[in-house]
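Note on ligand handling. Small-molecule inputs were canonicalized before submission; formal charges were left as drawn, and no protonation-state enumeration was performed. Where a ligand contained multiple stereocentres, the stereochemistry in the source SMILES was retained. For zinc ion, this procedure yielded the string shown in the input block below.
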Amino acid sequence: VRGTLVTRTFNWAMGHRLQHHEGLCRFPHGHSYSAEVTLTGAVDNAPGPSSGMVIDFSALDEAIAGAVGHWDHAFMLQDSDPLVRHLRAFSDEQDAQRQPRPRLILTPWAPTAENIALEIAQRVSDRLAARGLLVVASVRVHEGPKSVAEWRAL
Ligand SMILES: [Zn+2]
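Structure output:
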């Protein structure tokens, strides 16, 4: 594919566990995640504040933050995970004590880097839908420094 690609990185910290994993991933733990969201589109050279760009990086940043910014310092669990009810109980307890509720993100899928990459691609695409000429080409999710899962449109 010929074209211009632009990438913005989003970093966040999040807990999760894989309830059916046979190794250590079954235990609650967390990662410093990083997602590289890559868009493709035409460079717009019409006069104006974004002349010469595919998209202003700050606009891409806003789209990503709007889509998944609330994942930072959250705990992501599959909705069928028995741990959900314990965290909900803790959340209610915090609320009763007028403390902020923890961020709990429930998903219909196992919270792996692969599924997280697909979810980010869909959410950011939805945010950019009004700008029809921009396409999310790929999302690379780094789960710590050694593991990467990549979703690609092409
Ligand atoms: Zn993990």
